[in-house]
Amino acid sequence: xxxxxxxxxxxxxxxxxxxxxxxxxxxxxxxxxxxxxxxxxxxxxxxxxxxxxxxxxxxxxxxxxxxxxxxxxxxxxxxxxxxxxxxxxxxxxxxxxxxxxxxxxxxxxxxxxxxxxxxxxxxxxxxxxxxxxxxxxxxxxxxxxxxxxxxxxxxxxxxxxxxxxxxxxxxxxxxxxxxxxxxxxxxxxxxxxxxxxxxxxxxxxxxxxxxxxxxxxxxxxxxxxxxxxxxxxxxxxxxxxxxxxxxxxxxxxxxxxxxxxxxxxxxxxxxxxxxxxxxxxxxxxxxxxxxxxxxxxxxxxxxxxxxxxxxxxxxxxxxxxxxxxxxxxxxxxxxxxxxxxxxxxxxxxxxxxxxxxxxxxxxxxxxxx
Length: 369
Prior knowledge:
Layout: H1 3-6, H2 23-47, H3 49-73, H4 80-130, H5 138-160, H6 162-180, H7 182-191, H8 198-237, H9 242-252, H10 258-273, H11 276-304, H12 310-368
């Protein structure tokens, strides 16, 4: 047998078993393939939810750095790289200052807070038993145990959660890299999109970034005001662990609704550990701070930043917390704000297209007239 005989023969042009000639079947196969790709993408997103949330957290931190850099540019006409360096150094200096000036006190108060919450829960459970409410209130006590256990985990995480610190470090590193050269990543995403959609994507991403910057600016302002006000009032009222409670109140202010509830539980529990009068003072301070935040700070910030409906915000927090845990809870508001900005920009784009179509239809009539 010659070498020529060993070679495959020419293709005879007949249809293969994988070929489909019916246009209807071809169209349905394309639709099925598209849905299969969507399903695979959803499964991948589900299994990669935690890493993806870390990336989203990096985008949020990058937006925070970019917002500080833009704000600094209003006062210092220097290159953007130098302004970004100043913002990063200010953040590091603030963290270092908190750790050096109040680190030991915060660590001691965190352990004291955990022990206080354990004692308060034990006392409350004993009171329920004495009142004969323990069997009927078993569900309630389980919920309280979970809440107080979560709060205890939150306070312990300030000094001992290595995984949380590592995740926070990754978020900051990703955010810093994006903030240094944001246009590289923006161009990279645009490169993967069809050419016709790139200009609109550019406008949408700019709108989402602007909305997120305003949201973070308002949240940081609210965190500072609520934390400082809580610390000062608790110190004046003689409530124990005022510094730690102020810091926790400021941190939890980043999460509306749920953060305020946890802050109230902490303040009242610590106040009751020092006596009924102190517990009453702590409760009154909580009402004063939340009223000031709800009737003064939030409306003022919402007018200048992003006004998210409270019910929608709370619903998104519950869903994200149930699906993705504490990271999803912390990022629920930024993600919701970006989705809102994207939908608003899409509506504006549809209105612009409608105006163009109307003008195109009216132009021949005007020319003919």
